[in-house]
Amino acid sequence: MSMPGVYLLLAILGAVVPYLAFVPWLGEHGLNLARLWQEIAASRLSTFAWLDVVLSVVTILVWSTAESRRLHMPPPCLPVLACFLVGASCGLPLFLYQR
Question: Which of 5, 11, 62, 88 has CB atoms 3.0–4.6 Å from 93's, for a disulfide?
């Protein structure tokens, strides 16, 4: 498999796998943002994991924007959207696929 194919497969997995955990939670609690925040801050370990993800997404956004400019690509709109709707697990491989 070519590297673009690997990146596309990773982007698809990066979109599907996190939602395998989130969709059942959403079905159980609905879009309860207070509950979501409570569970994010439930322990130092979960807070650590969320902060790591947030900083990773910020890094991906900064890097992909700079890399797009450097390579004279269109702005990375789809990877940015993927970062916000799914996370780094989808946004990064999607940008690498587009690159």
Answer: 11
Do the beta carbons of residue 14 and residue 90 sit within 8 Å?
A: yes
For the chain, strand residue ranges (E) read none
Q: How many domains does the chain have?
A: 1
pLDDT (tens digit, 9 = 90+) per residue, 56-78? 999 999 999 999 999 999 999 99
The two structure tokens encoding residue 34 = 């207070």
| Closest among 19, 5, 1 to 93, alpha carbons compared | 5
Domain with 19, as residue range(s), is 3-98
Residue 15 confidence (pLDDT) = 95
**φ/ψ of residue 40, rounded to 5:** -60, -40
Quote the tokens at residue 87.
């996370």
Asked if residues 83 and 12 have their Cβ atoms less than 8 Å apart, the reply is no
Q: Taking a C-beta distance cutoff of 8 angstroms, is the pair 7, 92 a contact? A: no
Q: What percent of the chain has pLDDT over 70?
A: 100
